[in-house]
Amino acid sequence: MKKKRQAAERRSPCPLNASVEMLGDRWSLLILRDMMLRGARTYTEFLNSSFEKIATNILADRLHRLERDGIITAKTDPTDGRKLIYTLTQKGMDLAPVLTEMVLWAAKHERTGNQPLIQQMRQDKEGFIAAVKGRLAKQLDP
Amino acid sequence: MKKKRQAAERRSPCPLNASVEMLGDRWSLLILRDMMLRGARTYTEFLNSSFEKIATNILADRLHRLERDGIITAKTDPTDGRKLIYTLTQKGMDLAPVLTEMVLWAAKHERTGNQPLIQQMRQDKEGFIAAVKGRLAKQLDP
DNA sequence: CATTTCACTTGCATAATGCAAGTTAAATAT
DNA sequence: ATATTTAACTTGCATTATGCAAGTGAAATG
Question: Is the CB of B60 under 7 A from strand D?
Fold first, then answer.
C-alpha cells in the first residue's frame, strides 16, 4: 500500500471528484489507453502511437502528473540511458474497467472506429480486462 | 435511435477519444453524478447540490454541451415557467457504469468520503447500477 | 404593483492548452 | 575523437478555457 496524499487539497471528499481531478482532462486517459492497449512505454512512443497528436509540453506535464498521482512510474532504460520507461502501477492497471466502460459507452452511442476491440469487450468484458491486466502485470513496477 | 452527429469533427475515431471529448473536463461528470445520485434536475439544484461549487457560467455551458451531445434534455417545468427540468436520456443513463467504476477506483486508491455508497457499489455493482437506472427511468425523456 | 426567484449573461482576470522552436544529455556514425 | 542523431524534454508566446462578481429579463409570489 502506497501512502495516500492530498485528500485535503481536493475540492470535495467525493470519490468521483477525486477521479475527475486526476483524470478529468483531454489527455490523461488517452495516454493510459496507449499504455494499456498499444504497449506505449516511452515519451516518443506516446507521441507517435496516438492519432490525436498531443503537444510535447502537455505530454511531459501529464506524465509527471500521472507519476505524482501514483498511476505510473518512470525509470531509465538500462539499455539506453536517454530513455525513460513508463510503467503502470497497480493503481494505473485498476483503471482498466473505467477505460473499458468508457469505450463501450461511446461505441454504443457514437459512430466510432476499432470495432474488433469493441466486439471483444462486449463478448467478454471481464475476460478482456483480465487479459489487459495480465499483459501489463509482466511489466509491473510496484 | 437518435441521429449520430459530429464523428467527423473528432480528433480521432477512437471510442475512448469520443468519451473524453464529451466528458473529459472538470465538471461534466460531477453534474451527471448530481443527477444520478442526488436527484438534481434544475439549474439551482445543480448549483446547490454539489460540494464543489461550480461557477454559474460554467454550469450553463456544460448543461448546453451535455444537451447538444444527447446526454441530457431540457424542458420547462409545466408548473413553473421559469424552471427548466433537465433529464438524463438513455445515453446519459448508460453512463452509470462509467461513474460507478470511477467511484470504485478512487475509493480503492484514495482517501475519500461517502463510504455507505461505496459499500453498496462493492457489494452488488450490477444491482446498484440497475437501481440507479430504475429510479431514473421513471423520469426518462426519450 | 413590488419584490423575489430562476436561469442565465457579461466583463474581466487567471489558468490551461497548443504550437513552434530551442536545449541537454546520451547514443550512434564517421 | 568528433559529428550527427535521437530522446526527452523546455521555453516563449498566442489562443482558449475556467473562475469570480455583478448584472439582466422573464416568470412567480407577496
Answer: no
